[in-house]
# Entry
Amino acid sequence: MSKSRVLTWFKVGVTSTGFTRNVSPPGEKGYSDAVEFDKIRRVCLVVAQDWYDNDELYIFTDRTASYVVPLHADGAEALLQVLGEKNLVDSKEVINAFLKPKEHPMTCWPPAKTTTGKKD
# Structure
């Protein structure tokens, strides 16, 4: 899937209490959903390792599946900014992930802890 096509059919809306996804893939059934910020338990940023992939956010709540948001979707940058403002992601670590994608292919907040209590 090319990055330019995602923008036309994947839209993210941000409100004061959460965000929405309105997804209408060409030739497929579309869907919409909403997530409240206070329900978010973990956020992971996966940085593309080549030009053909999308950078993506995986947003976890109490439900089993995560909510996926390609960062090339319309409104995704605004969502990432608000997640930083609400301390659901660390903006400095987001920058590090994009500057050194091979060293940070996936970064999550809050960071995972090892059995010794130290960050991975």
Residues 76-85 form the longest helix (10 residues).
